[in-house]
Amino acid sequence: MKIAVGNDHRGLGVKQRILGLMAELGHEVLDFGATSPSSADYPDSALHVGEAVGTGQADRGLLICATGHGMCIAANKVAGVRAANCRDMIDAELSRRHNDANVMCLSSDLIGEDLIDRMVRAWLVTEFEGGRHARRVDKITAYEKHSSKPRVHAPPPNGD
Predict the structure, then answer these.
(1) Mean pLDDT along residues 65-83
(2) d(CA 88, CA 29)
(3) Distance between CA atoms of residues 133 and 20, nearest Å
(4) What is the three-state SS of 82-149?
(5) What is the pTM (predicted TM-score) of this model?
(6) Has 146 been annotated as catalytic?
(7) Which pLDDT score is estimated for 159?
(8) What is d(CA 46, CA 124) in angstroms, rounded to the nearest whole number?
(9) pLDDT digits (tens, 9 = 90+) for 116-150
(10) Which of 65, 72, 86, 105 is flagged as catalytic?
(11) Backbone φ and ψ of 83, nearest 5°
(12) What are the structural domains of the chain?
């Protein structure tokens, strides 16, 4: 699997461990993250990873910042991305099974190393269940396609 990985300065250490894990698991990695502990803005990495996943250049994405929140917000602005901020095994597995998440966001400050490794492993192997969940994901995709087109606003009902 091809995995796009991104981080800001706070996620550098976790990314370095994840790169080792990806190599161990045999995944190809596209690294869009900060390479030094100097300040780096999370939207830069998040949008690059989101574009890679949204265009099919990568199968999935992993994003790391202090809390995971900023990365998740930014990545979800990219068409085709379903990013989930995961803090435990249940989040990691259900984001895949029920939401077909294609980007997982992680906190470098709030989750321990062992748990992050287990979450990443589980997230990469967990399949989307489909069924009733597919109907829901399809609604999101349909909205996303519709909302990206310019909208023509109708005049208010009273003619003003």
Answers:
(1) 97
(2) 23
(3) 33
(4) CEEECCCHHHHHHHHHCCCCCEEEEECCCCCHHHHHHHHHHHHHCCCCCCHHHHHHHHHHHHHHHHCC
(5) 0.89
(6) no
(7) 45
(8) 19
(9) 999 999 999 999 989 999 999 999 999 888 886 54
(10) 65
(11) -90, 140
(12) 2-147 (3.40.1400.10)
